[in-house]
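Record pair follows.
FIRST:
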Amino acid sequence: MRKLNCFVLLAFICINCFSQQNQSWRGFFSYSAIKDISQAVDKVYAAPENTVFSKNTVTNELKTINSIDGLKADVITAVHYSESFHRIIIGNQNGLLLVVNENDGSILNVIDILNKPSIPPNKKKINHIYEYNGKAYLSCDFGICVFDLATLQFGDTYFIGPAGEEIQVYQTTVFDGFIYAVTQSNGIRRADYSNPNLVDFSQWSAFDTGFWSGIVTFQNQLIASNTNTSVYRHNGSSFQQIIAVGQPIVDLRSYKDRLIFTSANHVYIYDNQLIQLSHITQIPDVVTSFTCATAISDKIFVGTLDKGLYQTAIGNPTMFEDCTPSGPARNSIFNVKKAPNYLWAVYGDYTKQYDPYPLDSYEISRFSDEQGWDFIPYADLQGAKSLTRTVLNPYNPNQVFVSSFYSGLLKIENDNQITLFNQTNTGQNGLESLHDPACPTCIDVRVNGPVFDKKGNLWMTNSRVDRAIKVMKPDGQWQSYSLNNITTAPKEDSYAGIVIDKNNTKWIPSYRNGVIAFNENYGNKFILIKNGADSGNLPNRDVRCVAIDNRNQLWIGTFSGLRVLPSVDRFLYDDSLETNPIIILDDNLAQELFYQQSIMDIVVDGANNKWVSIDGAGAFLVSSNGQETLHHFTKENSPLPSNNVLDIEIDGATGEVFFATDKGLVSFKGIATKPAEDLSQVYVYPNPVRPEFNGTVKISGLIDNANVKITDIGGNLVYETTSEGGTIEWDTKAFGKHKVASGVYMILIASEDGTETKVKKVMIIR
């Protein structure tokens, strides 16, 4: 006999009261993979992977709840709406229980199961949530937990195996004075519901020893689904078959006078006389599998594996309405690219060892503020798999190129003309397939890191071949450059994203050979920056990313730390290049910035600060010289839905920073924008600054190194700074000491050489 005593400790309960409109962040989540649904009289609640959304069946209003609102789900496995308490109860694969209060939007994180050390991590999954008499009964992979919906505290835990051991419980119900539990390998077990000692395993007995998958109480009857793919009702002495579905039942539920059960290709709705009302086998023009379904009045709602939530009518289940909120096709986004009018997202990926298998066959998504999300379906992508990076042609806004780490290079023109380049149509100097002795006829063209130079040439890498550097010229001709005798075993090497500096030097991160620097304009000159003293001083030859900052320094992220090359110009006159660590003081101790950390991405913002993604540790914003950490965003302290940030992208015009993670895409509204060409478009916001405003005043549209002075109406200086990038902030304080009084303040802006000036005004109202 065991009991989880920690379930009564309030210390394990956290409350997040996030604003429903977090002004600094935006979320771009996929709502397509429906894990479970619940219902109320006038609403349906759907739970995708790590978010929740609802639809009001009367007003048709859609409402989403995600990490921007404070919902920090892991992988959702069960959802239940309590009509009595107006709360959404959300169970997760790792045992986390989330409670959303619909009245005020607050979110309760109950981490008792998650933090219980005596239960193995792989046995904490919450499979189902059943409400009875103000209690939520959680069917878990170890037993049953009771959660009081009034006090929001855990009560008893039932380990109901024949010898008191942990057993997997799929679903529970209360019927005729007994609590029933469907288990994985011990059939249906039950106990007297009024028994005050249900924590004693001996009070539980075998009701049926068959193999069952679900159980509900419906119209004073006990209904159960069996692993033999049939649904039964109990007549008081034995189970009688209602219907043989022919597929495993993945969801069994009852609501009001409706019985609903779902398999991968079937949804059945029965009335209170167990007469079939509807049978759904497909959604027209939608290829997917069903995961769950429910019925509210005369409406049916069907959750799918990857296409969202659909609504139809019980009397005519042929017309379907897509009820899914707008979002990308899936949450695990490998790369995002911001264009002037769109944000592009691709989902193909490879492992840390650059292995693209299993191959991905995904669509391409793109987002605009005006139209939301739309898609280029996989059927239109010429069979290209594992799409990894997107680049926009700066000389032709109608052209987008997407690299495939298996199929070559895609060109998308005017949204509908799609061409796939591979070894068959790029000539002898073009793309190449790696040689696989086990499959000599296989095509495996691993292209990555495409980038345009100033002349309109598109450069890219072709992994696992000798001639690994490729360029497609504006006239469509191809050229290759060999790494044979330059790097070690190029046929075993792979490459991340290329960057090109002002001198047209290509800087290429490699898996096995550090950074490869190449410039065809200097006699095809190569320099390798590798690990070890006198070879480049990298901490690891596995380089994941490179970035060139506004001072022409090369920042290098490796699998084991950070290095900086002081100037990319050194490539022009040196034969070897040495990098340096950044030394910072932490608690008065000198240490290396990001020592031994796996750096996945580095992006430079308009103020020359660096956004750095650390494997499993979220995203950092460090100052231009790396000496100061300005932000460190994690899942725990921000709306990031995961600490695995796969890609970072910045909108240079607005400063918005996009974080693509393995569990969703979010953005942070930064203020570091690219510098303008002149001062003609300077603007100040907000203006006026009203008493209720608590943020900072932004002055945007600046040129780089502009001098900005702010004075009161009498000419007294209250703030002065020099711009780095296109935007500065003012905290409305006089040199950071005290807030300035109400009044009009003059903003005097001058270029570095004084040849260009601008004057703006801002009104402060206290």
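SECOND:
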Amino acid sequence: MCDASTSSWTSTRRSRPSTWPGNTGCCAMADGAGAPAWQPWRQRWRRRWLPLVLAMLLAGSLHGALAQALPWHITSAQLRITPGGTLDRLPPQLALPATGEGWQDTPLPMVVPRHVTPDEVGSGHIETVWVKLALPAASAAAATSEPLYLYAPRWQTVGRLTVYADGEQLWQSRGGPVWNGYNYPLWIALGHAPRDIVIRIDVMGQVGAALSSVRIGTREDLFWRFAVRSFLQTQFPYLSSGGLLAVGIFSLLVWLRRRDETRYLLCFLAAGAYFLHTLQYLVGQDPLPIPEAWFSWLAFNSIAWLILACYLFIFRYLGLRYRRLETALYGSVVFLATSTLPLSWLTHVVFLYPLSQLLLVGLNLVVSIAALRAAWRAGSREAMTFSAWNAMSTPIALHDLLLQNYRIDIESIYLLSYLGCVQLLLFMILMYRRYISALDEVAQANANLSLRLAQREAELLESHRQLRDVERRETLTRERQRLLQDMHDGLGSSLISALRMVEKDASGTARADDIAQVLRECIDDLKLTIDSLEPVSTDLLLLLATLRYRLGSRLEAAGISLAWEVDDIPPLQWLGAQSALHILRILQEVFTNVLKHSRATAIRVQTCRDDDAVLVRVHDNGTPFSPAGTPPAHGGRGLANMQRRASALDAAVSWQPDASGTWFTLRLPVAPVTASLDAPGNGLVP
């Protein structure tokens, strides 16, 4: 095309002088006499500007012709294979074999077949594949002012590739021999159009080589092809695997908190295996930090680990366990990992793994059938979708295997990375549905729990109301019984004593003062019973002040002075109506005995704190009194009732005579009383 355009332009330029309109009669008129006045200007224009305009038109036409020719798609070349290659750094100048010896035409894409068992891989044998590209005419190419680039979708072999233009080295692969041209497209700056391009491929052993078709053009023409190809072959697998690895790490963190959820662990293991597998699509431009043999082992076995994690996830998702199948799966993965180790006798196969790849495909086919069968029986659409997509990995793996062994078009793209990406996306969707299902179950459980709690709360409120009613009735009953018993034992006993006093007096001349004394005691008992019903709020001093108010007039009438020497004491939390009545009865009995028997003229009342008890002390200056020295017949029921009332309070009473009279001590505990003071039957006889 360029040659034709150039020829047409050449022929046109040569024919123009003979046909140019300026050679007609107008020129003759300009040279003759009588020429117009503007004729000298026209002659000057023709001499100065016409050549420049013609040159501009010629350059524009030539550039348009070349623009139509670019980019060049080169689909044929010359091929030659020579022994004695090297993987060392080559000199910058091309040392091309002699022309015409062994060169043959070959189409592009070009394939040098590989042997199934390349026995010479480890023997150090290296051969060189020379590819000479047939370029368009250099004259047309040299007319462009923009730099040109070479773009090839893929080259692949176990070795190195070097590109020469016009005998000068432009580019040489830097990575290791295994992964050099695995997945990176060629993008080489050629500068201005070269006359010839030679590609040298040094191949280790009999593993063969492949080169796609080549395109040459400007950056504007080809860069979009290179960018799209790079994204599809390298960037997309890496970005997708990185994102899925982040989700896998999140699943690992969830599993660390919930160890029973093994599906989250399997999700992390699958994401990690997929990430390791996609690393092979990224290497090639620079040497690896680890030996290539070990990286090959890692990249290959990561596929087996991914298959193991995915199918174990399906079985755990369905709640199934196929012990024999899982044992065979574990054994196959271990066998693949150990048999492909670079340290084994299969070291020379580490670059291709042909037998191991076939075994891996067969293993994946077997577990795919088992997973589909289990999902079909379980009726799980999610598991069926996941299993069906996993089953697709078998034909896709065969496609990649054929592409790696140059059995299909070398310009195709490896598809297993895309399968793994969609596979792990389905993986995440299943985990997401599991998570949403768990949230729904928790929400439903919370709703049921709230309903049951509301029902239980209503039942408890009703039961509590009934218990309050029962307790109120029991409290009223106990209080009624206490009041009746206190009135019977106190007021009733005093009235009976007065009645007997009158009835025994045959003469009917009972002393009025004796009867009045009995009636006063009846009134005091009635007042004490009423006082015990007043709320004392655990305040013993308030209770003692009430007693002082009730008995003060009797003591004054008897000519007895009362000294009140009380100190602050802690509150008694157990002090209630019944316990207050017991305390009042005990102290009433003490004051009554002083009035009747001691012939005292002064009484002192004291309160103080003694460790874990409160002391109430009463001193009279009458006849000393000691219970131990009092005969039972003269003790009456008063002392016995005081002892029983004190026992009901977990308290103690004591008498201690001295030179000036008698000290009475009532020791009350600060801690709650253990006995039930409000129980029926605790009323005591005065």
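COMMENT: The longest strand covers residues 602-610.
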